[in-house]
């Protein structure tokens, strides 16, 4: 099954603050998002429009994907993306999926810089312990961007690549190489 995408840019601003924007790809109607892990659903509410649902995703640094049904007004935000979820056909022809498009250029210029560099930015947050721009929760710095942390049994290549909130660590084998996420 082929899914076609249209692109939209969502920008949210408030008086006296910088604009925080994201570029989204939108599926055709008749699709919803199915995350691999239930813990990745971060919001499930009723909102009045697709624009408000996409704005809610844009305002949440953990949101990578959302779906919205214009009949039921159901808006769901996920910290999952297509690496651990899927866009699937649904019986509702009024449901649509939006995915935040990420690239290294959104991260590299500000990672580990003073917090002023990432103020009002959805891709990195200010760490109160280091006063520097860091990856948002449940993601990690891989040298160029902040992908989602991995789940149990996933192959990992660095110590912070696994979901620590689920007590997972990147196991090191007898040769000193990182292998997989495990409890």
TrEMBL record:
Pfam families linked to this entry: PAN_1
Keywords, in A-Z order: Signal
Keyword hit for Cell wall biogenesis/degradation: no
Ranges for domain Apple: 20-101
Range of residues in the leader sequence: 1-18
The name this protein goes by in its record: Apple domain-containing protein
Lineage summary: Eukaryota, Metazoa, Spiralia, Gnathifera, Rotifera
């Amino acid at each position: 099954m082929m899914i076609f995408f249209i692109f939209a840019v969502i920008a949210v601003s408030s008086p006296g603050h910088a604009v925080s924007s994201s570029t989204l790809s939108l599926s055709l109607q008749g699709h919803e998002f199915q995350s691999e892990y239930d813990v990745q659903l971060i919001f499930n509410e009723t909102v009045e429009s697709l624009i408000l649902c996409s704005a809610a995703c844009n305002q949440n640094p953990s949101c990578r994907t959302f779906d919205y049904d214009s009949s039921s007004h159901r808006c769901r935000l996920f910290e999952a993306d297509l690496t651990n979820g899927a866009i699937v056909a649904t019986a509702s022809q009024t449901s649509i999926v939006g995915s935040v498009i990420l690239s290294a250029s959104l991260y590299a210029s500000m990672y580990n810089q003073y917090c002023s560099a990432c103020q009002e930015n959805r891709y990195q947050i200010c760490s109160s312990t280091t006063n520097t721009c860091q990856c948002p929760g449940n993601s990690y710095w891989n040298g160029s961007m902040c992908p989602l942390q991995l789940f149990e049994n996933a192959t990992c290549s660095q110590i912070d690549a696994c979901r620590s909130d689920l007590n997972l660590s990147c196991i090191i084998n007898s040769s000193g190489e990182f292998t997989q996420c495990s409890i």
